[in-house]
Design a protein that fits this description.
Layout (H helix, E strand, L loop, with lengths): L2 H23 L9 E3 L4 E3 L6 H12 L2 H4 L18 E6 L4 E7 L4 E7 L3 H6 L8 H17 L6 E3 L8 H11 L5
Parallel strand pairs: 3-6
Antiparallel strand pairs: 1-2, 3-4, 4-5
Length: about 180
């Protein structure tokens, strides 16, 4: 027997004992909760919800704090850039990859490179998004720009992304071309 048939048989037995009372005064007995049995049919009293309320409730069930931590592995501390050792911040999207060297004490960008710049966008055809080769080129251009400005040491901020793939390729290329971190 399923759970529905058990609760239905309970309601039927409850209804049988109080049917005459309900027929007299036209009220539902307190022992029968939201489901009530009519003498000839099942009457279900339900609160109507909109599609938006259904979606909100479903997302609240699915998106718990534990599942939202899966995408980004955030660091337990904040990486800060100083004038002696600025922060190399990386951001990637599905179409581009960006890298900046930032002095957080002055809130100033000292150098930057991205796939939006002409030398990289003309050299590579990345219609399916940036690849590891494109990320290496961005790291190389960023390292050259930093060395021209006298920046040799940086603190690498991966921005919560795993150190793998394009992020790792950009960091390795910047290291190979003279940046220390």
């Amino acid at each position: 027997m399923s759970c529905n048939s058990i609760s239905l048989s309970f309601l039927q037995s409850t209804w049988a004992t109080t049917r005459t009372q309900q027929l007299r005064d036209g009220t539902r007995p307190s022992s029968v909760p939201a489901l009530a049995l009519h003498p000839r049919r099942l009457v279900v009293e339900a609160k109507s919800r909109t599609r938006t309320q259904d979606r909100t409730a479903r997302h609240a069930r699915i998106l718990t704090p534990e599942t939202s931590k899966v995408k980004f592995d955030f660091l337990p501390f904040q990486i800060e850039g100083t004038p002696e050792r600025p922060r190399l911040c990386v951001f990637r999207s599905n179409k581009h990859i960006y890298a900046q060297v930032i002095d957080d004490s002055k809130m100033h960008t000292l150098a930057s490179a991205s796939t939006m710049q002409k030398p990289i966008s003309e050299e590579f055809d990345y219609s399916s998004g940036p690849t590891i080769d494109v990320a290496k080129k961005v790291g190389e251009i960023l390292a050259k720009t930093c060395l021209e400005k006298g920046i040799t040491k940086v603190a690498f901020d991966r921005g919560g992304y795993p150190y793998h793939g394009r992020i790792e390729a950009l960091a390795d290329a910047a290291r190979e071309h003279g940046l220390q971190f």
